[in-house]
Amino acid sequence: METKNTLLSVENLKKYFYTGKGVLHAVDDVSFDINKGETLGLVGESGCGKSTVGRALIRLHEPTSGNVTLEGQNILDYKTKTDMRKMRQEMQIVFQDPYSSLNSRMNTFDLIADPLVVNKLAKTNKEKEEKVYRMMETVGLESRLAGSFPHELDGGRRQRIGIARALILEPKFIVMDEPVSALDVSIQAQILNLMDDLQKEFSLTYLFISHDLSVVRHISDRIAVMYLGKIVEIADYIDIFEKPKHPYTKALLSAIPIPKYGLERKRIFLEGDVPSPIDPKPGCRFAGRCSECMDICKTETPELKDEGKGHQVACHLYK
Questions:
Q1: Exposed site from 8, 16, 19, 260, fewest CB < 10 Å?
Q2: Cross-strand bridge partners of residue 34
Q3: 209 close to 181: Cβ distance less than 8 angstroms
Q4: CB-based contacts of 216: which residues, under 8 Å, 6+ apart?
Q5: Rounded CA gap, 78 and 69, in Å?
Q6: Would you say 128 and 211 are in contact if contact means Cβ atoms under 8 Å apart?
Q7: What is the average pLDDT across 144-169?
Q8: Is the dihedral of CA 241, 233, 208, 33 positive or negative?
Q9: Cβ distance 113 to 153 under 8 Å?
Q10: Strands 305-306 and 6-19: what pairing?
């Protein structure tokens, strides 16, 4: 439900890919809101469509249909290069692989300065240098690394370049597409803490995409759980972990290892195969693997409904 504090509102977002075997429903009727200064975690198995959601929001993938509203403006209505360039300044993305997302022929300074050059936001070379070195300091990159190339740096520093490159345009909203999954655990903690500090300093709003629930719990205010192109549950991160409602969410949480000897959690093993996202049949996408499946689950698609205190779930068990 959109309010005056809502920064980004997504309504009935769809992204289909047309293949020789049929229509692949990568994102199918997804809706959610993100408030100003909030982090919404988006989790799910690999291939569920969560990265496609992030790319569709900023039109790296053109949505098939739906609305994406940033502070009252539907960015899917933008047609001209001028409008798109303005939108790009307000909405940025940090990619999963910090090496493949960086141009190997550009050094650290040029990589961070490139958005300023493209958008003509630095009138002089001195102004450009001041902004780049200030941003390097902000994200924890030593100035001596300005002439270094990506292959000369470790993964943590490469990802700091990616974050600096996104931040230098002073965006309002950033898609974090699994930004720590390719990093060592110790480096993950550093990057997550950096993101938290930057959010407070610049009043940033994040969509944090990950398959790691432990990481999402650390950084998110609310969490959305996605399965095969659809969001099945959205709630406060405490409610998701302590009072999960959807059977798929419960199964995901049961797979998290407990780092204490002697403590055990009842593991929920999912049986059956993941259905094909190509021309999916009516009904709940999770029905074939759900131990609580009913007849209605196989014929009628459940709607995402509020079950109280903003806890939304798409499941016929709560109808």
A1: 260
A2: 8
A3: no
A4: 41, 43, 208, 210, 223, 237
A5: 11
A6: no
A7: 94
A8: negative
A9: no
A10: unpaired
How confident is the model over 201-259, as pLDDT tens digits? 999 999 999 988 888 988 999 999 999 999 999 999 999 999 999 999 999 888 776 66
The angle subtended at Cα 230 by Cα 226 and Cα 236, nearest 5°, is 45
* pLDDT tens-digit series, residues 175-198: 999 998 878 888 888 999 999 999
Q: How far apart are CA 243 and CA 141, in angstroms?
A: 41
Tokens of 300: 């009628």
- Amino acid identity of 164? A
CA distances from 299 to 12, 175, 283 (A): 21, 34, 4
Query: If you compute the radius of gyration of the chain from its CA atoms, what whole number of angstroms results?
Result: 21
- Tokens, residue 216: 């999402």
Query: Residue 190: CB partners within 8 Å, gap ≥ 6?
Result: 140, 156
What are the phi and psi torsion angles at 318 (to 5°)?
A: -110, 20
Spatial separation of the C-alpha atoms in residues 37 and 158, rounded to whole Å: 25
Which amino acid makes up residue 102? L
- Two tokens, residue 48: 């569920």
